[in-house]
Structures are given as C-alpha cells and as structure tokens.
Amino acid sequence: MQIPSFHFPVNSHPAVRICAVFAVIFSIHAGADTGNPAGAEQPKGEHPALIYTWIQDPWTGDTELTTVREPDQTLWNGQRIKDYEASLEVEASPALGTLTIEKLGLQVPVYNGADEFNLNRGLGRIKGTARPDEDGNLGISGHRDGFFRVLKDIQKGDDILLHTPQGVETYAVSSITIVPKNDVSVLDPTEDKTLTIVTCYPFYFVGHAPKRYIVKAHPVPD
Questions:
Q1: Residue from 29, 143, 163, 208 carrying the catalytic annotation
Q2: CA-CA-CA-CA torsion for 177, 178, 181, 187, nearest 10 degrees?
Q3: Rounded distance between C-alpha atoms, residue 155 and residue 147, angstroms
C-alpha cells in the first residue's frame, strides 16, 4: 500500500511547511477524483475517511504529514470509544509513526510511550525497547478492546507496515503466543530487528485480563 505523505526536516522554513500541507491535500483530493486517493488501495465499495496527522521522530526532529484511515470501531468496547474521542480533544505531541495491517483493516498512529493517554488515542511504543530505526526489539502496545481487538484474526505470515519519517518498513508475522501477564521476557533485547506487539488476553474478558497476546514479526528482505 502506498501511503500519501510529504517529508521535510523539522527546521524547514514555515513557508515550506505550508506548501507541504497543501501538496499532500492536493494529491489526496486529486486521487479521490479517480476513486483511488493518492494511490492508496481501498477495499471495493468502501471509502474510509482519511485523517491528516503529523508524525515526528522524537530523536531527530524529522517531521512528516501523512494520513490514517478513520478507525473502524465496530468491535470496540463502548467506554474505549468514549476515551478515544476524549483524547482527540487534547492537544498533545505527534505520533512517531503509523502501523498498518491491511489484512485486518487496521491503520493507527504509534506514540512514544505506552501510557493510558497514548493508548486511548492509538498505540504506544514501550519505552526501554528499541527505536523504530535501529536494530533490536521494538515493543508496541495497544488495548485489546480498542484498536488491537482485530489481532484475534492475525496469522503467521501477515504483513505489518511501520511508517516513520525515515520511510516505510514491512514486517512479516513470525509467531503468535499467549503468555502470563507478568512475563516480560518477550521484550528482552534482540540482536536482530524485531517487532513485538503486546495486548491483553483474552480479547473478550470482564475485568483485568490475566494473560498477554504476543505477536512477533521480522523485517521482510528487500
């Protein structure tokens, strides 16, 4: 999937930033006239709304304007929907990237930190794990009754796209496991580049879930 975006350094002149915004908006609307916004693949008969969002590398300051599709909240818990909507009213730091699992219809911002506020508005990079642009084990967490409920249908071999200001990297799911909630070994450092997705389990459970659902993925060779 091609993700419409425009990249420029954080210290660019304000005029350049304004031009960047209009360049992206123009490209999306131009594509919409042909039924294919900016080259992005769309499910037949469906045209989900696009949300403009900034992503920023918090370590280098590189910033990019991109889009994410409006989330499908069909499977979400009612309170989770309210928390998500409330989070949108708060001015906060931009996401460090977006995560897309096209097969599951999931496209969501990833924020730096897995605190409750970030998890209400998207996914969170677990601090202390690797950065998106370096080797090692990158941990990303999300709520089982919100964005990550669709993970119940993920399978080995499925593609996961991680989009940051450095570009788009494709991962393939290599394993799916269920562990006790206090098993943090899944986040141990690795020498190779690894993506570890964490959410609570079971997906439908009243109260604090006793286990964790772990999806591991590795980069797809170019």
A1: 143
A2: 0
A3: 17
Q: Which residues pair with 98 in a beta bridge?
A: 109, 163
The CATH number assigned to the domain holding 175 equals: 2.40.260.10
**Amino acid identity, position 176:** I
Both tokens of 64, joined, read 């990019």
In terms of pTM, does the model score above 0.90? Answer: no
Q: What is the DSSP letter of 220?
A: P
Q: Residues 60-79: pLDDT tens digits?
A: 999 999 999 999 999 999 99
Please tell me the total count of domains within the chain. Answer: 1
Q: Which residues lie closer than 8 Å to 145 by C-beta, 6 or more apart?
A: 76, 77, 80, 203
Q: Is 19 a catalytic residue?
A: no
Domain carrying residue 86: 5-219
Distance between first and last Cα of the chain: 15
pLDDT digits (tens, 9 = 90+) for 133-154: 999 999 999 999 999 999 999 9
Taking Cα atoms as reference points, which of 138, 124, 122, 111 lies closest to residue 193? 138
> How do the residues of the chain divide into helix, strand and coil, expressed in percent and rounded to 5?
25, 35, 40
Catalytic residue among 13, 200, 208, 218: 200
